[in-house]
Automatic annotation (TrEMBL):
Residues 3-120 form the Response regulatory domain. Coiled coil: none annotated. It comes from Paenibacillus gallinarum. This is Response regulator. Residues 445-543 form the HTH araC/xylS-type domain. The keyword Nucleotide-binding does not apply. The modification 4-aspartylphosphate is found at residue 55. It holds the Pfam family Response_reg. It comes from the Bacteria. It is found in: Cytoplasm. SMART domains: HTH_ARAC, REC. PROSITE patterns: HTH_ARAC_FAMILY_1, HTH_ARAC_FAMILY_2, RESPONSE_REGULATORY. Gene3D superfamilies: 3.40.50.2300, Homeodomain-like.
Length: 546
């Protein structure tokens, strides 16, 4: 939804437009009001305005001067000018300043809405043009290496795709890998000298090393690289032409990759004047075994190299490497903590179900009790983290039964542990939802109190938003969601109901009642009152029983 700014030195004109036009039906979400060009520019500086409707004749800064400044500082903003003077010179100036439209006052609601709707359509067309295929394609090509790196990083950390999605994404990112294809991996650690050189821009050093890798292996292998959380360079490798690769029967992809890895290490030393350590993985299938290959290569790097620099290890050197029994679902992105922080409680519950499904399946290979401990502490840690981050104690939102699990876990079966996890999640979710509801209710009460006490003065959306310290757009959405009524509609209705109350219970004159409910222009007050009640204030008073 767009934001519109109404500018006129007559308060009655601004308030009429703000309160009586059904802006939402035109695609307008937020209406701002200004009684001078100076105030209008201040609002422009603090809000993302899309459309400005301004009177031409105003003191200090005229409408022409205002839109000139707006087009100079915010060229994307569209403008409509209003004038009570049917003077062609004004129209020429408006056209010269590229104003979208020029309307004569008093303008009818229908004419103004028609002009605004055409302008909204024009803005939307510009957005569509900006997102055109050709422009998106250029941006895509510019960012292709980053997109490729990001996808590999996601696969390393456990993200999965269905076969069609994976195939489509590989094709889109121009990656020559196929499901079920054999692949190997290089894990490269930059040593002290290169790390110091890369401290200013590690991405530049990664680029240089990967260029060397590509030069060495491009005749026989495709490469796909990224940088992991350890700042290791991870290079995924697949055979370019399997049928034509080997000159003798003793050569295999593994032996050739190990040969090339040693050459890469030498070339980096020669051309970049620094050492790297390399771990060459065993081979596996794409994409299902990427995670396992990566983890084994990293473990090999950590266990067999330690802090010794410039070493070279390969999967061929490994003997009887035990299979990994970590519950991978616990660590696959998005993690439990990230889902809890985002308030995606349904997705957290699905993830918990996946974790326990994997836990039960893993019992076929090893003792489930060991993995249950891993699962329990991961879940308990994530729950404790989010509760404390929300500024609360465990005991304040969990009943005694669930809280005891954090003090001394007492599950005896996997099902009991899972049931506790789901119950605890539900308590956290219910507390978050209640807190959000309470916060929104507090906002609504604060808004209504402010409007009630300041009805005779400034109760525009920006003034109300400033009082409750919220962005006007967010405030409008919260108020509408909580009450079912737009905030501007509430202000208008309250003014009319208060006016009717004063007409029923007092002998105040019409102009006095007009001022009491925030209208300085009595004629304008009579107009909006009649629009609301279908009678003028005087007719309303005269119709009351004696």
């Amino acid at each position: 939804m767009l934001q519109i700014l109404l500018v006129d030195d007559e308060r009655s004109v601004v308030e009429t437009l703000a309160e009586t036009i059904p802006w939402e039906s035109c695609g307008i979400g937020t209406v701002h009001e200004a009684l001078s060009g100076k105030v209008a520019l201040e609002i422009m500086e603090n809000h993302d305005i899309d459309i400005v409707i301004s009177d031409i004749r105003m003191p200090e800064i005229s409408g022409i001067a205002l839109i000139t400044e707006i087009h100079k500082r915010w060229p994307h903003v569209q403008t409509i000018l209003l004038s009570g003077h049917a003077d062609f010179e004004y129209a020429k100036q408006a056209m010269a300043q590229e104003s979208f439209d020029y309307l004569l006052k008093p303008v009818s609601d229908e004419d103004l809405m028609e002009s605004v709707q055409r302008l909204v359509n024009r803005i939307q067309e510009k957005w569509e043009t900006a997102a055109s295929y050709q422009r998106a394609l250029h941006a895509f090509q510019d960012n292709l290496p980053l997109l490729q790196s990001t996808m590999l990083h996601e696969l390393l950390t456990g993200k999965t795709y269905d076969q069609k999605t994976l195939k489509d994404k590989l094709e889109l990112l121009e990656l020559p890998y196929a499901i079920g294809e054999d692949l190997g991996m290089l894990i490269i650690r930059m040593e002290e000298h290169l790390s110091e050189m890369a401290s200013g821009d590690i991405a530049l050093m990664e680029y240089a090393i990967c260029n060397i890798i590509n030069e060495v292996v491009q005749g026989h292998f495709h490469i796909w690289h990224t940088r992991d959380v350890h700042d290791y360079i991870v290079v995924l490798v697949s055979v370019r032409n399997p049928g034509k690769m080997f000159s003798s029967k003793h050569e295999t992809p593994q032996t050739m990759l190990e040969h090339y890895a040693a050459q890469i290490q030498t070339n980096v030393q020669s051309y970049l004047k620094g050492a790297i350590s390399i771990s060459v993985s065993h081979w596996g299938k794409f994409p299902n075994e990427i995670g396992e290959i990566y983890e084994r290569a990293v473990i090999s790097m950590r266990k067999r190299m330690g802090q010794v620099q410039g070493l070279f290890v390969t999967a061929s050197d490994e003997k009887n490497v035990p299979s990994l029994h970590a519950i991978r679902s616990l660590y696959k992105p998005p993690t439990l903590i990230s889902l809890l922080e985002a308030g995606r409680f349904q997705d957290v519950e699905l993830k918990i179900e996946q974790i326990f499904e994997e836990l039960l399946h893993s019992s076929e290979d090893h003792d489930i009790a060991e993995s249950s401990i891993e699962v329990y502490y991961a879940l308990a840690g994530a729950f404790t983290y989010i509760i404390h981050k929300n500024g609360k104690q465990l005991s304040s939102i969990l009943p005694a039964e669930s809280y005891r699990y954090f003090q001394a876990p007492s599950y005896s079966t996997t099902k009991q542990l899972m049931d506790w996890s789901i119950r605890t999640l539900h308590y956290i979710r219910d507390d978050a939802e209640q807190e959000l509801k309470d916060n929104h209710s507090t906002i609504v009460r604060s808004v209504q109190s402010f409007v009630d006490h300041h009805l005779a003065s400034d109760v525009s959306l920006p003034a109300i938003a400033d009082h409750v310290h919220l962005h006007p757009v967010y405030l409008s959405k919260v108020y509408k969601a909580e009450t079912g009524e737009a905030l501007t509609a509430y202000v208008y209705r309250l003014r009319m109901e208060k006016a009717a109350y004063y007409l029923r219970t007092s002998t105040a004159k019409i102009f006095e009642i007009s001022e009491l409910v925030g209208y300085n222009n009595t004629a304008y007050f009579i107009r909006v009152f009649k629009k609301f009640y279908d009678v003028t204030p005087q007719e309303y008073r005269e119709s009351l029983p004696v």
